[in-house]
């Protein structure tokens, strides 16, 4: 659950359903993509609220593992250089997920999206890494989404991400991610790299192809979930065009339009409290 500052300057905090995977799942559902969430949801009051939020938004939670451990809490601070989080994740439901909790994925699933703090701490990080390695051929999306405040062993987390990056079809990074992670390993010609740069827009590359797209000028409320919403905007556009994989075969106009829609989706979100996902009408 994200606690974000109220816009009235009172110092109050507004509880908003959050977490990278939840944000992306809800955004995909609002963009008419059939989507499910897998992870551990607490049985505490916040976990119940998160489950209800996902169901209300049309996200399938039939694969969710319910846990007696507490929900993760994130307190957002809106600073001149962006939104920063104080994360309270010790002994959380998310961390406690184990490899033996992994579900058997239905064959109808075409895309898996990974990233964020779920990849930081064992046993949950081990479970998600195992799930990626077991994934059938298809589109695998990895958003590094680094949160240094919860990373206790930098080397171990970097090594895990280096193991996972070669299995990703799409790798999404931000300026902050690269500052923490360092130089990326060489990517295959069929791996799409999406480098978001906040107000400076995005740079995309796929093999020898490179494309940059500017960010529109908007009034920013907060940047909570902007990257998650960007992911959903791009992915939903590819789904809408019936062009998911292999990425190297996607025509460039379709890919550039998908990236533009991702930027529009993120730009919509930052004008609202928390991760506020758009519909297609909002994007268009």
From TrEMBL:
Family that this chain belongs to: Belongs to the carbohydrate kinase PfkB family.
Domain Carbohydrate kinase PfkB: 17-280
Enzyme Commission number: 2.7.1.45
Superkingdom in the source lineage: Bacteria
Gene3D superfamilies from the UniProt entry: 3.40.1190.20
Signal peptide per UniProt: none
Keywords: ATP-binding, Kinase, Nucleotide-binding, Transferase
One Gene Ontology term of the molecular function aspect: ATP binding
Organism of this sequence: Falsiruegeria litorea R37
Name of the protein in its database record: 2-dehydro-3-deoxygluconokinase
